Amino acid sequence: MRTQEVRLEVRFHSPYRRWALGLITEIVVFALFMAAVALIALLAAWMA
Amino acid sequence: MWVAPQRRDLGAIAHYTGLLITTVAGAMVIPLATALVAGEWGPALDFALGAGVTAAIGMGLAQMAPRGAYLGRRDALIITALAWLSISLVGAIPLSLSGHYGSFLDAWFETMSGFTTSGLTLSQDLDHMAVAHNMWRHLTHLIGGQGIIVAALTVAMGVRGGGAISLYIAEGRDERIMPNVIHTARFIWFVTAVYVSLGTVALGIANLAAGMEFSRSFLHGFWATIACYDTGGFGPQSMNALYYHSPIFEIVTVMLMLAGTLNFNLHADVWRGDPREIGKNIEARSLAVNIALLSAAVGFGLGASQLYSGWGEVLRKGVYHVMSANSGTGHQTLYTTQWLNGYSGLGFAAILLAMAFGGMVSSTAGGIKALRLGLIAKGVLWRVKQSIAPASSVITQKYHHLLDVPLTSEVLSNALMVFVLYVITYITGALIGAAYGYPAGAALFESISATANVGLSTGITAPTMPAGLKITYMVQMWAGRLEFITLFALIASIVTSFRRGRGRQ
Fold first, then answer.
1. Alpha-carbon gap, residue B434 to B443, rounded angstroms
2. Does residue A35 fall inside a structural domain?
3. What is the average per-residue pLDDT within B37-54?
4. pLDDT tens, position by position, A1-38
5. Does some domain include residue A29?
6. Is 80 exceeded by the pLDDT of residue B1?
7. Domain span holding position A32
8. Mutation site, B189, B196, B295, interface A, largest A CB count within 10 A
9. Residue of A nearest to B265 (CA)
């Protein structure tokens, strides 16, 4: 009977490695979101 | 079957509660050092005394069981519920000695509000408070916002028997970011350190540019950053965010509020290089829709009002408060009396809803939480699909929260149960406020603000309010921070212990 070797690799992506890029991404996402929300509020105020 | 805690359990509960209290005594060294650097000798004595008494109580309790005593799931719930009560109690000692609080109850209210990141305040003559006392007020936001259990776990409590994860879950954070709960706690502190450093520098420069003295600029920047990132809401001035009169201050603080209300799991995903999770996540989508709709409502309401119809007012008095309310921060750019005088009815209602809904789970925000609202919306969709499908068909509904998960009746009923408990607490607090003679709208606003740990106020929260209402809001802040079940576990344990005691007689 042949035995077959099965290799299982578990990779853990550390959030520390590219944290600066992640931080910049978050800030850009927050800025874009707030700009969109501000636009919606101003549009609603204008419609009133 | 109700199981009463045994003598051994009580020893473990006292031991770990004592360790948590000792951690708070250690944290009091920061305002003590601040007082010494600032040459504030009276406040230095307040903190030396406060830290000494707190350490003595904490160490005394910790001696009631050996180090590494076994901790069960029920014990973890009780410790967590007791921890928030006891740390706010001992944390009030230095504040009560400051002379800025009418009674010890007022100082206790302040620290309960601080640790639960609510931001409602009973301080008097805040504009002349010592730097050290202000430092402690804001540090309570930092310690409470991160979670007292998370704070203590990072300094290693030596918890045995899987108790660490039980403590972590009992505190209202039911998601692990890293495989190990200690590493999760450290990651939470890492994200916080990055945002607090960045926010302090940004706000410090903004204050400096506005003409504030150098050290005061950065001190105010640090405090405002903690208050916004940890979604607390305290300010070192009685006018709160209105004191700064600065659009740049408001833009930076709104960004910090967003960072604070983001689930730490989403921070981890973005920092791992996967920003797409924010776009797919049910909770992020739910919060985005929530903020957009409520901002539109506030914009429409203010646009039609007499006082705040200009575009600057719509953004700075409208959208700013939606963000402040939805994130659970409570920074306000209005005088408290203006909510009921001149602010539009629609805008007022939208701010009420923003406070009630709250931010994301596993963040520093309070309220019902966007994840539960998203799940309930999906649940409604699921039921509608089922009702129009053929009787023999099996209809499933999925949602995406970190991964694709099938929606189950159990998940849905848990979300609905917490939703109902929040609504009942909001209404109960409003009825008690109204019973004390306050207008119903203002009483509801204040009740939601306390339960959802927001901190916006119509002016009811003041040193002159009745003691009964102060205690009501304290219980609401405590229950809201623990999301009820942990508090119910404490009450059930006390009742069962009492019944057992009576049974023996």
1. 6
2. yes
3. 96
4. 667 777 766 556 788 888 999 999 999 999 999 999 99
5. yes
6. no
7. 14-48
8. B295
9. A15
